[in-house]
Amino acid sequence: MRFISWNIDSLNAALTGDSPRAKLSQNVLNTIKEYNPEVIALQETKLSSNGPTKKHLQVLHEMFPDYEIVWNSSVEPARKGYAGTMFLYKKDLKPLISFPSIGAPGTMDAEGRIITLEFENYYLTQVYTPNAGDNLNRLEERQIWDIKYTDYLEALDKEKYVIATGDFNVAHKEIDLAHPNNNRRSAGFTEEERQGFTNLLERGFTDTFRYIHGDVPGIYSWWAQRAVTSKINNSGWRIDYWLVSNRIADKVIKSEMIDSGPRQDHTPILLEICL
Q1: pLDDT digit string, tens, across residues 189-212
Q2: Handedness of CA 133, 138, 140, 144 (dihedral sign)
Q3: Could you tell me which of 181, 184, 267 has the C-alpha nearest to residue 223?
Q4: Residue 210 in 3-state DSSP?
Q5: Three-class secondary structure of residue 16 per DSSP
Q6: Where on the phi/psi map is residue 196: left (φ > 0), alpha (ψ -120 to 50), or beta?
């Protein structure tokens, strides 16, 4: 089975925009289409609380005619047009779909951050983990989120295999970003967030990229848009992951980044697994 996950940073822009960046996003979607994955997970869709418009759905159905579409959008009291997730899955798949609340603090549970697909032998779940904020103003809430989300994945894992993906908004180890020493108190590389991810893995999960590739350096999934040369210089972070239950780690065939060309921000990530 082949799965792809991508933080798209605005589905509307990718589907209906005509700016240079929108065209780059459209190119990435076409690249994803060529891989013909069973499931596509999208984060940071930034859709309204009503979800995709008729135009969005029309474009998606034209581009991915063999897929069903489900989404989870930010709703009040959370911010409008914020966060959000979406799954596209092949029509011959018949998952049970849930939009779990995990008891997260503040408005996090209302921000459309998790969708779970339940299949006969496994769960496939995606997450858009809350960012701790430029001034770490949301770090305490983020720490609670990490605990609640870990509890949620562990509960799933007690029932059947788990495959979890998404933008986890943390570079786990120094090897996972280009300039660790300059980012000790940056959102996504605080000791608190890194420990939260360590705790998650210790509860029975495998970071499939490191499982396959070991300590290979210099491979990232995100490059800051603010720094014009970040991607050219490969000054990136690896903050997007495919995790699996430890007991199926040996079933992983591939876990790698998909080339998104000159587009900065996130690049899609690929998982191939034989269950």
Answers
A1: 999 999 999 999 999 999 999 999
A2: negative
A3: 267
A4: helix
A5: helix
A6: alpha
Answer whether 0.85 is exceeded by the pTM: yes
DSSP E strands in 76-160: the ranges are 85-90, 96-98, 114-118, 122-128
Domain ranges of the chain: 2-273
How would you list the strands of the sheet with 161-167, edge to edge?
96-98, 114-118, 122-128, 161-167, 240-245, 205-207
Q: CA–CA distance from 192 to each of 109, 138, 139, 170 (Å)?
A: 21, 12, 8, 10
Please give the positions annotated as active site.
128, 167
| C-alpha–C-alpha distance, residues 177 and 172, integer Å | 9
- Residues 272 and 244: their CA atoms lie apart, in Å, by 11
What length is written for the chain?
Answer: 275
Query: What is the longest distance spanned by two Cα atoms in the chain?
Result: 48
Q: Per-residue confidence at 264, pLDDT binned at 50, 70, 90?
A: very high
Confidence of residue 12 (pLDDT cuts 50, 70, 90): very high
Is the domain covering 2-273 a CATH 3.30.1330.40 domain? Answer: no
Confidence of residue 119 (pLDDT cuts 50, 70, 90): very high
Residue with tokens 């069973």: 38
